[in-house]
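QUALITY CONTROL LOG
STEP: pairwise intake check
CHECKER ROLE: data steward
CRITERIA: each record must contain a sequence immediately followed by its structure tokens, with no blank fields

ENTRY 1 OF 2
RESULT FIELD BELOW
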Amino acid sequence: MNGAAMRIALFTHSVNPRGGVVHTLELGRALHEAGQDVTIFAPSAGSAPMFRASPCRVVLAPVAAHGNDTVSMVRARIDALKAALLDDGPSGFDVLHAQDSISGNALAELREAGAVRGFVRTVHHLDTFDDAQLSEWQRRAFADADAVFCVSDAWTRKIRDEYGVAASVVDNGVDAVRWRSPGGPDVCMKLGVTGEPVVLAVGGIEERKNTLQLLEAFALLRQTHTGAQLVIAGGASLLDHDAYTRRFVARAAQLGLRIGQGEQIVVTGPLDDATIPALMRRADVVSMVSLREGFGLVTLEALAADTPVVVSRIEPFTGYLDERVCCWAEPRDSASIADALRRALHDRGGIDFEHAVPELLARFSWHESARRQIALYASHVQHVMQALGA
């Protein structure tokens, strides 16, 4: 590219605050600040805006009416992204970059139709689906890409070993200033966050987030910390978690734990972008005991907010965290999670916030992610031009 700015289109599956969407917005911002020309495409139902402002040009793709099932929803979003890119003009971009299976299929279908030359894809994590169509969409979204990137070494190895796809690592980052900004106690009070101590989990009630096991651990924690409150924040998802949520509610009732504003358990639902940092700073410990993650941005965000974290002792976490910056827990063992929560609440878990945490946060910069991504884009563009005989 001879140092010239590239015209980059980033595609994400939603306007809601999920890890992949955050990655898209923050990578876009860092690419923009590095002098690249970035446009972000996202499906939007009901004219919903992007949850966080971006300095990049943002194209919201209107989602047409669809059925209530997941397959219909995914199909509608694939079609929305295809229509938006065709209307905008795909020839205006040097790089088309999908961040998920929905946008990956939109670009794969356009490539098959001859409307685009190719695309690249970031895999954050892969899910297990009972539906054959969803499984095929997930496979095609990375299998048809010209280049694949992952946000952790663990998923790079998994993609290589299980699917034979060579992927490159482009790490997540963290904006430490955002998570250290003062303010927010009034917001927490309005949500009924009054516990002493407060255990915070971000991402809603989901099986992948291991929320039921956290509930069991919280019940054990309250045996020694009777004023403890569990706050489950966020949860904007395109997938159906209703059955798992019903199990969570039923089990909480069996344990004698009430759910509601100011109760032992507060379930906030989706929140505005300014509220999560306030909750992070209010919390005494943040729990990230997921069974599967691509990277786990919440861990860095909590540490940037100066809050101890309890984390599953599994990959990808074991690839970039250690006992100096977190309290480990075995995610399938509620007693282990409860013990880790107690350790985190006692003398902040012994986490080295003076040296080890700043060193960790310095390793994960969105600007460094953008630098790495630009080099990979340049290689992709060169490969495309060679294939075209340019």
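ENTRY 2 OF 2
RESULT FIELD BELOW
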Amino acid sequence: MSGDVQVVWSPALLGYDFGDGHPMAPLRLDLTMRLAQSLGLLEGPGVRVVGAEPASDAVLQTVHEPAYVAAVRAASDGGAADAARGLGTADDPVFSGMHEAAARVVGGSVAVALAVWRGEAEHGVNLTGGMHHAMPGAASGFCVYNDAAVAIRALLDAGAERVAYVDVDAHHGDGVQRVFWDDPRVLTVSVHESGHTLFPGTGHPRETGGPAAEGSAVNVALPARTGDAGWLRAIDAVLPAVLRAFAPQVVVSQHGCDAHVEDPITNLDVSVDAVRAAVELVHGLAHEVADGRWVALGGGGYAVVDVVPRAWAHVIAEAAHRPVDPGLRLPEEWQAEVVARYGRRGPARMTDGADAAFRPWAAGYDPADDVDRAVRATRAAAFPLLGLDPEHD
């Protein structure tokens, strides 16, 4: 297997743009890739930057209903919005060229996933992807097409028998779970803020998969205001055990960074340092359980200057096996770009100064702790279905 990493990037991907004032600002991607370039992460041996072509209708329709794809095309070509299909809502306003822009994101995720499967790259990164809310027949939550689900479907069609999807976005990965709800070949693991306090209102521990795939969905629903220690404890208490039990051939992960304390639309209190630690954990597990086959996607993250570029530059660095020192000062050329656009400097360093320490689950369960109760609910619901002991594994 090649040790290379393929990173999807092209300025054409900035065309996924819902307009001024929308949280899903393409500038967050532009600043991320400019930072990665300034840090030297897109150059050197083993890193290949690849463009993305729009996925064909046939590829999109491996997950999405033909009528929905037709509706997206019609709306993006000047036709009427279709609120019944989520098109033309406040979350997903219609814009010119929407179909092509969203299909290009899918094309990038499918291409790097297949490159990883074929051994042309060890890891693949598409930070423009991670559109995990899109449903087979509707747009939802800033997501028009579900690139993660289409990429996983492409892996299955190419011969993969077990694919694990790991989602650490603050929002539940509901669209991917819906697509593979009754498919035992796909394990979906989502660690997110509870649906009782955050969109989309799903992802409760009792959601464990359909009749033909019981145990294929694992959901950790965390209380609002969970910080680094609880967030990392929850991930560590669930993810390694279920991935080892499932033994996937490929790990596809979604690294939305909207769990950060500064994110404007969520209620978790996580640092960039914890986000970086979670990326390291997922990367290590991909090497342990899937021979290194790892596809890392972006997702949510709406602190455009102060969080997203640093968090996602760490994703690229980790995938390239060239981790960035958290204490490193952000390059002046990147700061100049931020000043030109925002009239202020961005964060000084690649760290928030947090130690991202947590108490391992093996240290004991605390019934008075809200996070521990959430974790225990997940382990009790999902672990037995995967042949695991919820008290000890």
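INTAKE CHECK: passed for both entries
DESCRIPTIVE NOTE, ENTRY 2: The first strand starts at residue 5 and ends at 8.
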